[in-house]
Design goal:
Blueprint lengths: L14 E17 L5 E17 H15 L6 E4 L2 H14 L2 H5 L6
Antiparallel strand pairs: 1-2, 1-3
Length: 107
């Protein structure tokens, strides 16, 4: 087993499964019987189980939500409150300018 750094714990390397709820918003254009059109919003929820280490799952969650925020309000949530709290602790350490912008240039 590799040597752990001060910031890493054995929990970081344990495999686990975390339930994620993905919410996708879709818009549908409908026609009034009297004429004219209106938009109907539909939110579809799917439940997925992601497996891996907590760090891998949290990184995947971060990147997935970062991509989805531009898709009509679509997003992912943790099904379990404890997982959400653990993610908030992870997010504080992980959310840096380098991770947020990737290889982009920040002015």
């Amino acid at each position: 087993m590799e040597k752990l750094t001060e910031k890493q714990t054995e929990k970081d390397f344990l495999l686990c499964a975390i339930d994620i709820i993905c919410c996708q918003r879709e818009y549908e254009t409908k026609k009034y019987p009297s004429g004219g059109y209106y938009r109907s919003d539909v939110e579809i929820e799917t439940k997925e189980r992601w497996t891996g280490t907590k760090t891998e799952i949290f990184e995947r969650f971060y990147h997935t939500n970062n991509k989805l925020k531009y898709c009509n309000g679509s997003h992912c949530l943790f099904a379990n409150l404890n997982d959400r709290l653990d993610y908030n602790k992870f997010f504080i350490k992980y959310h840096t300018i380098a991770n947020y912008y990737g290889n982009g240039v920040v002015d």
